[in-house]
Amino acid sequence: MRERKLYALIGGLLLLAVVYLNWEPGSGSGSESVFEIRIPIPWLQPRMGFVTRNSTRFVDSETGSLVYVTGWNSYWLMSSGSRVRVSEMLRRGRDMGMGVCRTWAFSDGGPQCPPGSMEWLSIIETILTRKNTYSGVMYSDEPAIFAWELMNEPRCVSNSSGPLLQAWIAEMASYIKSLDQKHLITVGLEGFYGHQRPGRLGVNPGQWAASLGSDFIQNSAVEQIDFASVHAYPDSWIPNASLEEKAKYLARWVDSHVNDSQNVLKKPVLFTEVGSHFHVKKNGSYDRDILLKTVYDKVYESAKLGQAGAGALIWQLVIEGMESYQDEFSLIAKEHPSTYKLIMQQSCRLRSLFGKTDNNSTKRFNLFRDYLIKMISFVGESNVSHCQGLHTNNEQDLLKVYYVQLIIYLCCFKEA
Ligand SMILES: *[C@@H]1O[C@H](CO)[C@@H](O)[C@H](O)[C@H]1NC(C)=O
Ligand SMILES: *[C@@H]1O[C@H](CO)[C@@H](O)[C@H](O)[C@H]1NC(C)=O
Ligand SMILES: *[C@@H]1O[C@H](CO)[C@@H](O)[C@H](O)[C@H]1NC(C)=O
Ligand SMILES: *[C@@H]1O[C@H](CO)[C@@H](O)[C@H](O)[C@H]1NC(C)=O
Ligand SMILES: *[C@@H]1O[C@H](CO)[C@@H](O)[C@H](O)[C@H]1NC(C)=O
Ligand SMILES: *[C@@H]1O[C@H](CO)[C@@H](O)[C@H](O)[C@H]1NC(C)=O
Ligand SMILES: *[C@@H]1O[C@H](CO)[C@@H](O)[C@H](O)[C@H]1NC(C)=O
Ligand SMILES: *[C@@H]1O[C@H](CO)[C@@H](O)[C@H](O)[C@H]1NC(C)=O
């Protein structure tokens, strides 16, 4: 009797699976059609661990393995209008061994509102409670999401913005935790030190940086903030410095933030945007590679010691056809073999420290593709045969996590 019920259930599920086996009509001009299988039943999805943290380190909750990140930004994913392009970008990222993509949870020109308002809270709620129509899983329950970020580069120069920003971070982070206890949260800071930290002001790129209403330590110290985030743009911040000066500056910037995260905050820190111009070739090396390598080396040193410097994400990768979303720091990785190689090397050496094979997470990631406006697309199976010397030949789990920003733009804080 019991068995019969079970068979009926299995039969029903198979039927459901068939119903969801369909052709997805292409968007826009109708040029793309993607064959999709949807089985939107949460417990049928492949198992995958959430990324959690143990003091200063990220840990994969399923495997217990430490997580040190090589990743990239593609802010345009939401706006690309093309599943095929998104899919292609994710595939290429994975081919370079990268495991985290940072992108926006809404489009440019999307909701903008004063911080703390009900509207902002409702955006958060909308995102966290949204069900992925491919897997039936709510975003708050989705392990393919690495973390939530509150806001990209919060800044406001008004005098009273410091305490307001601090209160806003606490309020938003608490609200997210009330709806979602599974994901980590970060702020999205550039990492500047504020006036209240005179001993650190020399690490800032200039006097201006202390007057932006933010302070790396105070803002990141909020209890519900799980890890710190820092950006790095020496070409924009100290444009007139020589390459050597920029590299030296960058090394100090990274050291200081890793040190503060390790010793003061006791939380991991991700360098979530590392960007530089593509300059003329100098004795066989490109400026960008020298600067990127500076950060990569620091992260690798941190990883070897099991310290707080938990990873770096390059700003930003694009693919052909997305030129309109390019900025001065964008690149198509394939067109810059030396940078491509550098990214690959970083992925491989970090993975050789902590890599564990986990087929399930790849499957899971593949299912996390129906985004707010059905944008995130299928990540095809692909080999990463480039990680020579790793004691595994299955590298298909590389792109296991997805890093989504809740909020992109700065809202200025009104004078209190
Ligand atoms: C956290 O890390 C410490 C040091 O490695 C270890 O002793 C402890 O068991 C870990 N805690 C958890 C909950 O994994
Ligand atoms: C901002 O601070 C400066 C220096 O402390 C002060 O001169 C100025 O009046 C303040 N402005 C406001 C609007 O509080
Ligand atoms: C860099 O040099 C240019 C031209 O010499 C100058 O106008 C600009 O103010 C300098 N920028 C900084 C940040 O020093
Ligand atoms: C690292 O942080 C500790 C604690 O704040 C501080 O005493 C030390 O001087 C820092 N070292 C460097 C190199 O910044
Ligand atoms: C390239 O030149 C710079 C000085 O301009 C020097 O510091 C660096 O070591 C050189 N790199 C190589 C690979 O020779
Ligand atoms: C993962 O998949 C590969 C290739 O499909 C297979 O050889 C390997 O045994 C799988 N690993 C696990 C842990 O299931
Ligand atoms: C992969 O999924 C299977 C079936 O759900 C499970 O038994 C196994 O423990 C999972 N492996 C890992 C590494 O999570
Ligand atoms: C995967 O690797 C195998 C062996 O190196 C190769 O034959 C195959 O074409 C590769 N597949 C893809 C999708 O790159």
Layout of strands and helices, then pairs:
Layout: H1 2-20, E1 21-24, E2 34-37, E3 51-54, E4 57-60, E5 66-67, E6 69-73, H2 83-95, E7 100-104, H3 118-128, E8 145-149, H4 161-179, E9 184-186, H5 216-220, E10 228-232, H6 234-237, H7 243-265, E11 269-274, H8 287-305, E12 309-314, H9 337-354, H10 359-367, E13 401-405
Parallel strand pairs: 6-7, 6-12, 7-13, 8-9, 8-13, 10-11, 11-12
Antiparallel strand pairs: 1-2, 3-4, 4-5
One 2-acetamido-2-deoxy-beta-D-glucopyranose is lined by residues 255-256, 259, 263-264.
EC number: 3.2.1.78
Catalytic activity: Random hydrolysis of (1->4)-beta-D-mannosidic linkages in mannans, galactomannans and glucomannans
Signal peptide: 1-30
